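DM between two lab members

TW: hey, do you still have the Kynureninase entry open?
JB: yeah, one sec
JB: this one, 203 aa:
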Amino acid sequence: MVDGYHGFMATPTDLSAVADKIFYLAGGYKYAMAGEGACFLHAPPGFGPRPVVTGWFAEFGHLEGPPGGVQYRTDGGRFWGATFDASALYRFNAVRRMLEQHGLTTAMIADHARGLQARFQTAIQSNEAGALAGAQILNPVEGTAPRARFLALRHADAPRWKAALQEMNVIADVRDDVIRFGFSLYQSEDDVEKLIHACARLS
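TW: and the structure you got?
JB:
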């Protein structure tokens, strides 16, 4: 099982060489920008022709078959559950169309985010970002290896920094003593400079 949560549409992913051996699970949340409710599963060809846990949608493609027994679909639809809210699929398709119209690929967006992360990391390490210089960078930008689109910093003051930044209209998230800053398509180099300036005011 490959968990694509932090990888799908965050970094170019080609699993074709092992597609006949693995399961891949991801969805529209986070980097796909489609919100919750649009999860998908890739299963090796031929796996689970009659899934144990499923719903009535799993036989929706074979309603015209003879009565009696459950006639599972032969495509991926055999893993469907029951009636669901399809709005997430419309959101996902809208995002994909928007990116295509603007000529934006996952690789291009990943490179843009990496550049923003690298600039912020440099600011932290060169004392441009105030008290953040005393934090431990848990996932530093190094080389060109695929990475998630956030920088995570460990420091005892992380919760206080988050609250102070929120007062300055800067959104970060905190988990215990780790504060995370996310970078993506909708941020610019100027936004990062504003972030650095805000962080410089932290004590």
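TW: got it. The mean pLDDT is 91. The beta strands are 2-3, 24-27, 39-42, 136-137, 150-154, 173-175, 178-182.
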